[in-house]
Design brief:
Elements: E1 79-80, E2 83-84, H1 94-100
Antiparallel strand pairs: 1-2
Length: about 100
Amino acid sequence: FVPAQDACVITRGFLNARYRNGLGEGVDLEPGVPYPATVRFIDNDWVIPQGHRIGLAVMSSNAWWALPDQNRSDNTLLTHPDVRSTLILPVVGGAAAFRAAGL
C-alpha cells in the first residue's frame, strides 16, 4: 500500500470502446462479450526507481478527463492463460535490459 501523497500519475490513455475500430463510426458493444481494444498512452519518459511499483487504473468513465458517456459499463480484465489483458511497458535497453534485471 502506498499513501496517496506518495503516489503520482505518470501518464493517461483514453478509449471510448464504441470507437475502438476508429473514429469514423461508433459500434455498440454487446454486454458479456469480450472485445479487444488497444489504448495508447500519452508518451512520457520516466525512470522508476528500484523497489517502486507501477499501478494501472481502468475505468468505464472519467468525466474529469474525457467526455462522459450516458451508457455506463463494467470493465473486466481477463486473466485466463489463453486470453489475458496485458500492459506493455517499454524498457530502456529493450529485452536485453529486461532479462539482465532478472525479469
